[in-house]
Design a protein that fits this description.
- There is one protein chain.
- By secondary structure, this protein is mostly helical.
- It has 4 helices and 2 strands.
- The radius of gyration is 11 Å and the shape is globular.
- It starts with a helix and ends with a strand.
């Protein structure tokens, strides 16, 4: 996971669509989709919803600058 992935995860947690994330992060829509698919694969989940549940379970936070903090 790099800083871009962390920012995308934060955006997912905020309920943003792929298109919104791509526009706000100045990324191609396909880049966002690729990165999210890779995160789903690495987390061994099948959907964004499952990924969100997993993130909430472990209490990860995603501030604006893309860093994480595990409380």
């Amino acid at each position: 996971c790099d800083a871009t992935d962390l920012m995308i995860l934060g955006d997912i947690m905020s309920g943003k669509s792929y298109e919104q994330i791509a526009e706000e992060r100045f990324l191609a829509s396909n880049t966002v989709k690729y990165r999210i698919r890779a995160m789903l694969h690495n987390a061994n989940v099948l959907s964004k919803k499952e990924l969100i549940v997993l993130i909430r379970r472990y209490g990860l936070r995603f501030p604006e600058n893309g860093t994480t903090k595990n409380e």
